[in-house]
Amino acid sequence: MADSFYPPRHCYYDGKPKTASGDVFRSVNPSTAQPLADVHSASHSDIDVAIHSAQQAFYSWSTTPPVARSRILLRAVQLLRERNDEIAKVETQDTGKPFSETSTVDVVTGADVLEFFANLVGGGGLNGETTQLREDAWVYTKKEALGVCAGIGAWNYPIQIALWKSAPCLAAGNTMVYKPSEVTPLHGEILAEIYTEAGVPPGVFNVVNGGGHVGAYLTSHEGIAKVSFTGQVSTGKKVASSAAAGMKYTTMELGGKSPVIILPDADIEQAVDGAMMANFFSTGQVCTNGTRVLIPKAMKGPFEQRLLRKMEYIRPGDLMDMNTNFGPLVSEIHYKKVLDYIKHGVEVDKATLLCGGPEKPKAIKGMEDGFWVKPTVFTDCTDPMKIVQEEIFGPVMMILTYEEVEEAIQRANATPLGLAAGVFTKDLNLAHKVIAKLEAGITWVNTWGESPAEMSVGGWKQSGVGVENGKKGLEAWVRNKSTLVDMSGIVPTVFAKI
């Protein structure tokens, strides 16, 4: 293979890079379709050795006092923040997301989560409970680490998701074998090196690269105690099924087809801003995207007029230019998938194309071969349309109208998915009432997309199992042990002489 921009990626375990013995694939820059690095897949034997490394490290790490683990992880936070722009540049080249986004969101929010969990365990977040059952008997509980955990990353927020998984995992005293998405794998070794430099012991955080076959072997391995997966619903079901066969703990963060409900009294400017953030941020490649925009029928004209004016503020271009706020799709395969949906919306669903469409956008100098697509809006949509029913995972907005608020709520809930939802209104009392009826695990009022470390997030229905982040997020990485201590000096028994 020809030389690539970055050095080859292999495995990382025992605190250092290790040669992988599997097939070789390529990471590609989506903006230009040019290769970035050769990546060597892990073989089954490579994965076995990585898991063994994590097993060897588990006892020492899990018995390290939480405050000592916290200090080490906080050093990693400092390194992440110091190298923010350096890491963000790699993320931009690997994902195709603008540097204006990766430098202000991806690394920053990942470091926030690591800082949150490090402080949480350092401040007593792993403390159990004690209960006086009676005068001479007590019950106490302990939170203990699970063991070796598998983290399966997604391609849209690589470093952030790696930190969302590894932060609570390591803070709780577990060790991890992490598999980045084969589409955007360059961050894995970078994060592993930062953990090592911060003082995380060898074997505590390990990386194996590869496609679905690597993930399948890892998640079904008898040495794995828990699987945390982020990705599409169909793959998540397979991963969850495999994990369940081994009675493993799981956290599943899957896809969505989320509704944005614009209530009749909403400020149109704010509603348009919210709908655009819910559809075009990160080129629409966000699992919580609000692609079903439900607006009152009477508001349709003014909403669309303002939306068309503001579509001019979407600026594709040089990804390192801080004024660029829109990038290409992540890969050629995904590019073709999104284009097929747009074509289906035009040709089969017969939705009205308000702007965008399947035609190739105006070429950007030096990036003519990249996976660029036009930000697209369909209007006059109806619920049965394929583009309304299925997750597209691209910059494609569907506008639907409604007559009554209760109707909008019912239609918003008429999906097997339940990841996110939101409302825009000036009436906060009504907002809370609507939110209470929406079947989704992540909800917003008068904003869209923010997911701070303090906020526990997870999907309902087929959008996932369990939560990530927030105090509740730590519970997904521990098991509880309850002990009853009787101090009476008498052992109760029914087997006494009558």
TrEMBL record:
For the keyword Signal, the answer is no
| Keywords, alphabetical | Metal-binding, NAD, Oxidoreductase
The reactions it catalyses are: an aldehyde + NAD(+) + H2O = a carboxylate + NADH + 2 H(+)
Residue positions of the active site: 253
GO terms (molecular function) for this protein are: aldehyde dehydrogenase (NAD+) activity; metal ion binding
Domain Aldehyde dehydrogenase intervals = 23-482
Enzyme Commission designation: 1.2.1.3
Q: Into which family does the record put it? A: Belongs to the aldehyde dehydrogenase family.
The family database entries (PANTHER family) matched by this protein are listed as: ALDEHYDE DEHYDROGENASE-RELATED
Q: Which NCBIfam families match?
A: PRK13252.1
Name of the molecule in the record? aldehyde dehydrogenase (NAD(+))
